[in-house]
Amino acid sequence: MAMEMRLPVARKPLSERLGRDTKKHLVVPGDTITTDTGFMRGHGTYMGEEKLIASVAGSVERVNKLICVKALKTRYIGEVGDIVVGRITEVQQKRWKVETNSRLDSVLLLSSMNLPGGELRRRSAEDELAMRGFLQEGDLISAEVQAVFSDGAVSLHTRSLKYGKDVDLSCPARTRHGFAPSSTHLLTYPEAHISQLGQGVLVQVSPSLVKRQKTHFHDLPCGASVILGNNGFIWIYPTPEHKEEEAGGFIANLEPVSLADREVISRLRNCIISLVTQRMMLYDTSILYCYEASLPHQIKDILKPEIMEEIVMETRQRLLEQEG
Amino acid sequence: MASVTLSEAEKVYIVHGVQEDLRVDGRGCEDYRCVEVETDVVSNTSGSARVKLGHTDILVGVKAEMGTPKLEKPNEGYLEFFVDCSASATPEFEGRGGDDLGTEIANTLYRIFNNKSSVDLKTLCISPREHCWVLYVDVLLLECGGNLFDAISIAVKAALFNTRIPRVRVLEDEEGSKDIELSDDPYDCIRLSVENVPCIVTLCKTGKRVGKVLHASLQSVVHKEESLGPKRQKVGFLG
Fold it and tell me: Which strands, in side-by-side order, build the sheet including A233-238?
C-alpha cells in the first residue's frame, strides 16, 4: 500500500498554454458590456445609466443585435425538451420531487410517469399509494423536461417510445403495434429509453459544460453507454445486451457487472472528470477521444494532474484536427 | 459526516466493485488518492502544514507557549489538540453541527499521542515542575472530501515536523529566583523528532471485503463507500 505524496504545484490552465486565438470577452457582475444602445438585451444583462451592464459572471455572447451573458458557473435552468438525470428526494401525494441541480427541486407528476407494463390509464388512488413501489428516495431517473413553471421549477416526464405518433421506420417491430408508418413526426429512437436507472456511475458536472446535441443517449463503441443530462448529471452504465421493450423497467438488474465493463466505466468516469477540470465541453466525440487518449495509462493514474493535462491536450488536438 | 442517498442499484454496483478490487474511480481497494503536502503556510505560528487529499483540505497550525507541566509528568511538556470543523467544509457543519466530529477527532489525536513513543515530550521540558513548552495544535477542516482521519494525521505530523520552538535558557539568581532568557538569534530553535508520530489508516468493511475507505469523492456525493460500510476501523501505525 504505497501512498504518493507530492508538493502542491501551481498549474496554469490549459487554455493559456495553447494560446487561444479568439479571446472570450469575460465579464463580472457590474461590468459594462457596451455603451451602444442599439442592442437588445438578453439574459444576464440589465440596462443602467444608458449602458448595458452584466449581472452574472460569464462570457458575452452576441447574436446579431442580441447581447447576452452566458454564466460560467450556474445551476441548471430548465428548458422544455431537455433530457435530465435526477435523483428522487421526496415522495409526495401525487408527485415525486427530483433533485436536478437547479434552483428549485423539479417535479415528476404521477400522471407523467409511464406505468410498468405500458398501460395507458387514469391514475387511481391505488397508484398513489403504490408510488413508493415505483420510485423511492434515492432512486435515479432519466426524464425529459415537459414544462417550466413560472417560479423556475421544472416539471418532468418520462418519455415512452412505444406509444404516440413518433414512429421509427428503420425498426420494423414498431409497426406491429399498429401505428401507421406515415405519421407526422419521424424521430428515430434506435435504443429503448430507460427511465429508472440501474447499475452505473453518476458524475456531477457544471451544466454549462454539457453541449446541446440532438441526442443525449450514447452507446459508446468502447463498451459502455452514457446519458449526458443537460443538468450536468452524467450517467455511465454498462450497455444492456438486450434492448428491453418494457416501459420503464422498474426492476433494476442487480447482477454483478463484469470486470471488463467496470474498467471501461471507471475509465470513462475519470476521463469525464479530467475534461471537466480543464473546462472542455462534454459530448460524445470529446469523451470518446479522451477515452482513447487515456488508454496507455492506468485507470487510477488518469486523476493525477499531469496525466490529466496530457490526455486533455491530446483530446483537444484531435478535436481541432477533426474540425478544420 | 456527510451522508449521501444512493439508489439500490448504485450501492450494489459499488459493493460488487469493491469485491473485485476495482472501485468506481479505478483504484484498487488499498490505493490512496494523490496527497499534496505543504508546510510553513501560516506565518504567525510555530509550525504549520496544509494537506490536500482529493477534495479533503486540512490546515494545521502549531503554537508553542510556555506553561506548567502536569502534576503526574513533571519532566515533560504536552500537546493540546483542537479540531475545528468549519462550516465552509460542508453545510452540515453549520452552527454546532461540526462540534461532535471535532471532539471525536480531537480525542483520537489525544489517544495517539498519549504514549511514550510518538513524540519525545522530555525535549519540551524547560525546568522540571516549573516550566515547560505546551504545543497547541489547531486543526482546521477547510473542505470535507472523505477520509478525514488519515489526512489529519498526515497534516499533524507535517506540522509538528515544521515546528520550531525557540531555545531558552534558565538563569538562576543569587536569591534563587529563576529567569528565563530567550536566545537573541531568531533561528536558534529546537525541532521535534516526528519519526515515530503515527499515521492513521482508515479501513472500511463494505460487503465482504475490508479495504481503504478512500474512495472517489465527487463534490456532493462525498461518502458513497463510507455510507455503505457499517463500521470504521482506524488503525494507527508507527513509522
Answer: A201-204, A233-238, A224-228, A217-219
Q: CB-based contacts of B77: which residues, under 8 Å, 6+ apart?
A: B67, B69, B121, B123, B124, B125, B132, B133, B134, B135
Inter-chain CB proximity B36 and A254 less than 8 Å: no
What is the C-alpha separation between A166 and A169, in angstroms, rounded? Answer: 10
Residues of A with CB under 8 A from a CB of B: 1, 3-8, 87, 89, 137-140, 197-204, 252-254, 256-257, 259, 262-263, 266-267, 269-270, 298-300, 302-305
A253 CA to chain B: closest CA distance, Å? 8
For residues A287 and A289, give the distance between their C-alpha atoms in angstroms, rounded to a whole number: 6
- Going by C-alpha positions, the residue among A163, A139, A159, A143 that lies closest to residue A82 is A143
Q: Is the dihedral of CA B207, B200, A274, A85 positive or negative?
A: positive
Q: A129, A174, A140: which is closest to A252 by C-alpha?
A: A140
CB-CB under 8 Å, A266 with B24: yes
DSSP B77-130: -EEEEEEEE-TTT-GGGTTTTTHHHHHHHHHHHHHHHSSTTTS-GGGGEEETTT
Task: Decide if B117 contacts B196 (C-beta within 8 A).
Answer: yes
Top-ranked range on mean pLDDT: pick from B66-75, B167-176, B220-229: B66-75
pLDDT digits (tens, 9 = 90+) for B77-107: 899 999 998 888 888 788 888 888 899 999 9
Interface test with B, best of A91, A136, A137, A201 (most B CBs within 10 A): A201
Ramachandran quadrant class, A171 (left: phi over 0; alpha: psi -120 to 50; beta: rest): beta
Task: Give the pLDDT band (50/70/90) at residue B239.
Answer: very low
CA pair distance A143, A109, nearest whole angstrom? 12
Cell digits of residue B118: 510518538
Say whether the ipTM exceeds 0.85: no
What confidence score (pLDDT) does residue B225 get? Answer: 43
Nearest to B34 among A138, A197, A303 (CB): A303
Tell me the C-alpha distance between A189 and A166, whole Å: 9
> What predicted TM-score, i.e. pTM, was given to this entire model?
0.80
Nearest to A259 among B22, B52, B201 (CB): B22
The stretches in chain A having pLDDT less than 70 are 1-2, 11-22, 116-119, 159-194, 242-252
For residue A87, give Cα distances in angstroms to A195, A202, B7: 12, 10, 8
